[in-house]
Specification:
269 residues, alpha/beta, 6-stranded parallel β-sheet, 5-stranded antiparallel β-sheet, 15 strands
Length: 269
Amino acid sequence: MVEEAFWLVEPGRGEIRPVSLRDPGDGEVRVRAVRSAVSRGTESLVFAGRVPTTEYDRMRAPFQEGDFPAPVKYGYLSVGVVEHGPADLAGRTVFCLYPHQTAYVVPADAVVPVPDGVPAERAVLAGTVETAVNALWDAAPLVGDRIAVVGAGMVGCCVARLLVGIPGARVTLVDVDPERAKVAAGLGVDFAAPDDALDGCDLVVHTSATEAGLRRSLELLGAEGTVLDLSWYGDRLVTLPLGEAFHSSRLTLRASQVGSVAGARRAGG
């Protein structure tokens, strides 16, 4: 059976290639993809060939083929329908950390059934929500915290939606695009342009993947506040004003990355 997959053939150029699909064996499923999403930050860096050589192994996707910088088949947000597999999965809509491909064969335990009533275009965000959940485990927001989320992309919006559930928290989504105000309203959070965002925050979650966004995140902190940076910059250098109020205000800048479960939850397996 011949299917199609997207390959990055060289930095900045991709193509659709035929894929010969084998029959699934015992304990495997064949999934017909119905939705495939692009991780805007990471996949853009992969497409541009901006993965540092030191990170080639750590940045491998679960079912990646090829190697960085190229040719490589990369991606991890796919939703499809099980065409063949165990009886409890046959015909089910499932999520899988698979690259952009029309159909694929994977172990049955590599797919997660999508709950009834959840549309595929929403279910494809499962991997992004996983990142957001891990971020909240890392950040450990408290009741009544003043929180800003800088960057209203897929990850930032998922983080903001989860933060709404913290009792008494003031959550503001910050973005340069005023159209994202509509998204913020739908998520039940405030919205502000970077220059208009309220400072004095206890926590700022940064997801814009820009130096300007990270700088502004530090500026929005109150004394002893924390910036949790979810952005990945690849091989880009980032310059920050750590000589201003960074030390006197006892600020914290830390990273969160979904490749490792937050330490506070790691013992649970």
